[in-house]
């Protein structure tokens, strides 16, 4: 079940503000350095967030006009855009980010209530109403604000983290090569069961730490409820 549309619109705005703030605190030298995402520098990450905004604009255009405009022109375009963008200089990347954010926000603001109900197809081939687009964007800017540095999952809205945990659990449930998990938050009414291989890993932690671990990021809980080392998970986004 997708989060409420009003919530996702709010999270998209909050996430954009968080990412913009994080970006303003990162030096050009830090952007050129590695991130916790395997093989990605800060420039790769920033290029991805910029290209994602433009790809979502294609879906907004689709919802507004009915003209089929996929997020990417080919299965390889996403990665090609990221790699090409990673070679831009920092000033050009920063300008691209601000331009792409402003353009996406303007296009989203222009959709009518009827157009929000029109269906589009995501890069993964899912047919969804346009009302899902703010959720798709809020995940990108919220999670990658953490990846960029300067903020952690504890700085994200708690209701967003609760929705993200449910979303991650649903996605990981479709990839059974992952370990089975039984996870619950100690400070919120959030619990998920993720089918997978072996006996479930049972973990209980504050919501922000639980979200960190389920998203495959460093800094989450280190042990299961029975005191065993908690294995890391591959990055989810």
In short, what is this structure?
The protein is mainly alpha-helical. It has helices at residues 5-25, 28-32, 42-65, 77-86, 90-109, 113-116, 133-148, 158-173, 207-214, and strands spanning 119-121, 127-129, 179-185, 191-194, 197-205.
Task: Describe the fold and architecture.
Residues 15-148 form the Mycothiol-dependent maleylpyruvate isomerase metal-binding domain. InterPro entries: DinB/YfiT-like (IPR034660), Maleyloyr_isom (IPR017517), MDMPI_metal-binding (IPR024344), SCP2_sterol-bd_dom_sf (IPR036527). Residues 215-237 are annotated as: Disordered. Pfam families: MDMPI_N (PF11716). The protein is mainly α and 237 residues long. The protein folds into two domains: 5-151, Four Helix Bundle (Hemerythrin (Met), subunit A) (Up-down Bundle), CATH 1.20.120; 158-214, no CATH class. Helices cover 52% and strands 11% of the residues. It is built from nine helices and five strands. A three-stranded mixed sheet has the order 4-3-5. Helix 3 (42-65) crosses helix 4 (77-86), helix 3 (42-65) runs antiparallel to helix 7 and helix 8 (158-173) packs parallel to helix 9. The longest helix is centred in the N-terminal third of the chain and has 24 residues, at 42-65. The radius of gyration is 18 Å and the shape is globular.
